[in-house]
Design a protein that fits this description.
The protein is an alpha/beta fold and 209 residues long. The chain contains 12 helices and 7 strands.
Length: 209
């Protein structure tokens, strides 16, 4: 059976931009500035010092972030707690209900999974806000396994969890390098540009449109 005629049996979704609407970094900087009156340039420098690559593979923990903020700005424990709450409000964003409703409706006919580049604490915070463990069959957070997209090994990991061959799986992500990496493995990858067109593309793959 050719790839084009192989039926899709599972769909993998990215989180940021796809399942949730992301907040601009200015949202977080303004929240921290309102709390502290520290200059926005200093706050931006603090964020820039956090290596996203190291964070995504778990080399920087949530506690490391909190300790770094405390040391850099002389924060009390209570202040650190408030700053971290702001960080998680920014990081998690707000639900993209159109895509979430679509993903929920796929089960049980299709298995569904989340595959996200993440930071320590993200699964806890997103579960609390969005109930992802209730709505998806597999959850893969990069910091928990020490691999991050677009590394092909992380796609192999989620395929193993789902028990599916690449051609049986669709994948949605807003970052082109992740889409291209998945496609090279034979996964039916969709580049997210907006919700309406992305879901229409998924419908075509699932033979629902």
């Amino acid at each position: 059976m050719s790839v084009a005629t192989t039926p899709i049996r599972a769909v993998i979704f990215d989180v940021g931009t796809v399942l949730v609407h992301e907040q601009p970094v200015e949202y977080l900087l303004e929240r921290w500035h309102e709390r502290s009156r520290i200059g926005l340039d200093r706050l931006e420098q603090a964020l820039s010092a956090m290596d996203p690559g190291a964070t995504a593979i778990g080399r920087i923990t949530e506690q490391d972030v909190a300790d770094g903020l405390a040391a850099r700005f002389g924060l009390t424990d209570a202040q650190v707690g408030a700053w971290m709450a702001d960080l998680w409000d920014w990081y998690c964003g707000s639900p993209n209900e159109m895509v979430l409703d679509y993903a929920r409706a796929l089960r049980p006919r299709y298995a569904t999974a989340i595959l996200t580049n993440s930071m320590d604490g993200a699964q806890r915070e997103e579960a609390r806000r969005f109930r992802f463990p209730d709505d998806f069959d597999a959850l893969v957070y990069s910091h928990e396994i020490g691999l991050a997209k677009p590394d092909p090994k992380i796609f192999a990991h989620v395929l193993e969890l789902l028990g599916r061959d690449p051609q049986e799986v669709a994948f949605v992500d807003d970052r082109l390098e992740n889409v291209e990496s998945a496609a090279e493995l034979g996964i039916r990858a969709v580049h997210y540009l907006d919700s309406v067109n992305t879901l229409a593309a998924l419908d075509r793959l699932l033979d629902r449109g």
